[in-house]
Amino acid sequence: MARSSLYQQVAAELRKAIYLGALGPGDQIPTEAELMEAHRVSRNTVRLALGELENEGLILRMRRRGTFVRERRPLLIRPQQELLSLNTGEPRIDAFVHAVTSEGRQAGQDIEVAIVEPPEDVATRLALADRALAVVRRRLRFVDGQPYNTNDSYFPYAIVADSEIARPGDIRRGANRVLEELGHTQVRVVDDISARMPTPDESSRLQIEPGTPVVVYVRVGYDPEDVPVRVAVSVLPADKHLIRYELEAR
Fold first, then answer.
1. Looking at the 3D structure of the chain, how many domains does it have?
2. Least confidently predicted of 37-51, 72-86, 198-212, 236-250
């Protein structure tokens, strides 16, 4: 049997054990020597198998400690929560904060605010003129003190220049409420969701393990005149998040 088939067979057996729960989150994978003996293969074959599982995000290899099944406690995000109180006059709900606190966990964030010429794709979504400015509120968000995702929200500078949105610090009632007060209530949103591998900067900031992709979640909010007033770009490590939509037939 070819060497490539051997390492794929070893990887398949370990993968099955992980998915069936025989090896649970945090459990240690047998050592290279134990896997060599159990499968009657070479050390190189075992390392190729473990490398494949690491690239799939199933295991974590830690120097001097061994190889472990990765902990998986995905955060359940329900994007509809952000717009639940659209017509009730109640405070808007931040989908991230709601998701974290509803699980009894602690949410936190670091916020940076800047006036920028936004990336081309964001400028297009905001329907901005050439070289028009936007205010961006960049958030690095934490769960129980661990970096979980980033969220960059862009607003047309012409709309929010004199508001709290353009000033540093948290907005307790939420940026969406400020938009409402400015006469730009969001009545419609468009979500785009894609996946890719993280950039080196994202891997560092979010402490992403090798082989873990990210989900890029882009939401564009429109006011009653169908003017785009916000573009929110979230980068979510795929092993830490579950996005759930509930749709009702009309």
1. 2
2. 72-86
3-state SS, one letter per residue, for 33-94:
HHHHHHHCCCHHHHHHHHHHHHHCCCEEEECCCEEEECCCCCEEECHHHHHCCCCCCCCCCC
The domain that holds 199 is classified in CATH as 3.40.1410.10
Beta bridge partners of 221: 189, 230
Q: Using an 8 Å Cβ cutoff, are 163 and 178 in contact?
A: yes
Across all residues in the chain, what is the average pLDDT?
A: 89
- Would you say residue 86 has pLDDT above 70? no
- Give the pLDDT score at 133: 98
C-alpha–C-alpha distance, residues 124 and 180, integer Å: 22
Tell whether 57 and 141 lie within a shared domain: no
Helix (H) or strand (E) holding 219: strand 214-222
Residue with tokens 């949103």: 189
Contact (Cβ atoms closer than 8 angstroms) between residue 163 and residue 137? no
Distance from C-alpha of 95 to C-alpha of 100, rounded to nearest angstrom: 9
Whether residue 214 contacts residue 236, with contact meaning beta carbons closer than 8 Å, is answered with yes
User: What tokens were used for 91?
Assistant: 């405070």
Of residues 155, 176, 146, 135, the one with CA closest to residue 241: 146
If we measure between CA atoms, which residue out of 88, 8, 94 comes closest to residue 55?
Answer: 8
Q: Which pLDDT does position 1 carry in this prediction?
A: 44
Find the angle CA(223)-CA(171)-CA(239) to the nearest 5 degrees: 85
- Give a yes or no: residue 154 inside a domain: yes
